[in-house]
Amino acid sequence: MNESMKARTVIFGTQEDRIQRRLDALDPDLGRYIRDFAYDTVYDRPALDLKTKELIACALLVSLGSPPELRTHIRGALNAGAAEAEVRDALMLCVPYLGFPRAVAGFEVLRQHLEPREKPAPGQGTGLQDSEDQ
């Protein structure tokens, strides 16, 4: 990660403006608190790298059962340099602590995120629309 780049810029990627608009539309103070405290303060702490923070966030969001936020942070983990295998291992670590249903739900979010990246064979479409997530 470019050290001068804000964590939220890496995590949200091309979705940063859309996500911030969505949060602001829910409530401007909420949007500001999430941006300023969660991302520009907590995520700015130096002891853990952004990839590790995002892998932890993925496991925590599986525990909360928050699929839209999980998809955002799966994308964030990958944007921060995590390999797909590392995201899978973070989700797998949820099994002994949270149980199979929560872990399966987490893997489903990962599958949905990765599916659009799969390229169809030449001349064949996937029929998938590029869906927006949280």
From TrEMBL:
Pfam families: CMD. InterPro entries: 4CMD/NDH-1_regulator (IPR052512), AhpD-like (IPR029032), CMD-like (IPR003779). Residues 115-134 are annotated as: Disordered. Residues 28-111 form the Carboxymuconolactone decarboxylase-like domain. This is 4-carboxymuconolactone decarboxylase. It comes from Deinococcus sedimenti.
